[in-house]
Amino acid sequence: MTTIQETGEKVAANVERVIIGKRQEVRLTLVALLCRGHLLIEDVPGTGKTMLAKAVARSLGCSFRRIQFTPDLLPSDVTGLSIYNQKTQGFEFRPGPIMAQVVLADEINRATPKTQSSLLECMEEHQATIDGTTYPMPEPFLVIATQNPIEYEGTFALPEAELDRFMLRIRLGYPSMADEVTILDEQKLSHPLDDLHEVLSVDELRDLQAAVRNIYVDPSVAEYIVRLVNATRTHPDVYLGASPRGSLALYRTGQALAGLAGRDYVIPDDIKALAESALAHRLIIKTSSSMHDIDPRQVIAELLNSVPLDDSKSAGPDRRGAAAPKMQSGTAKRSPAGSPAL
Length: 342
What we know:
Layout (H helix, E strand, L loop, with lengths): L1 H14 L7 H12 L3 E5 L6 H11 L4 E5 L6 H5 E6 L4 E6 L6 E5 L6 H4 L1 H8 L1 E4 L2 E4 L5 E6 L12 H4 L2 E5 L6 H10 L15 H12 L5 H16 L3 E3 L3 H17 L7 H12 L4 E2 L1 H4 L5 H11 L36
Parallel strand pairs: 1-8, 1-9, 2-5, 5-8
Antiparallel strand pairs: 3-4, 6-7, 10-11
């Protein structure tokens, strides 16, 4: 697990040359990357959403394509189309920008639902069916989407089926005053992104992704994940709770976060630290509750305090066969939102 931790620190340090003061968000981005999951970055303009996606792409030895989503964008503009070649007298497939290892879907909520739906098969099954022919996505395959949650003019809300396909949703927020001064100083002559270099090859990334799958998850921790997700389905303020895909997202991201921490086993506080990012965007709040400003993040914070750990206090054996450190509820440092800090 030391390899995962050391490589993660190396990639994070490279990205943080561009994204100043957002270590937790960069760490969550690496979690999604190690889990082969997709990432939704939601925040107001100018906070560095697109720069984060570009910095991650440049840090990896992966092919990168950017799609600027607009209302007139067509599904074929995303996935590609077959064009008739007069010389060969046959149709030739021209792949779209989605056929890349890292895809930046910029301002994804500005495209129509028809165009957004072209991503569903690509994100979930890592393939695209065009004119009856199925084309596989390159591996690894990661979609990093950005959207502005404040401006609604000329935008289309992401359907629940698409939101559910994003493993994590993060928000960057405004930088602190000290970090903003650093940003001004760093960009005095040139943008740090221009000097960013690759620090992780495709083969190394694949090896890390395979290693993450082998991180131990105790059955009691898996049961805690299921209890937490099931509680979202029975909460009085929730119209639609998280699906089993949400349980899988918590399970996989818990493994990745443990690996980045240098552990080969998952503890309950890993799950608590990831619950908001992995589950909040999957919940639909009842209209009557939303009128009273009930937010999905508040629901997750409430459930983290109410759902018991039960037998999940023991997280499993370490490399020497000894019992892993027992985690008591509330032992982790907590963030202002109510979930443990990463």
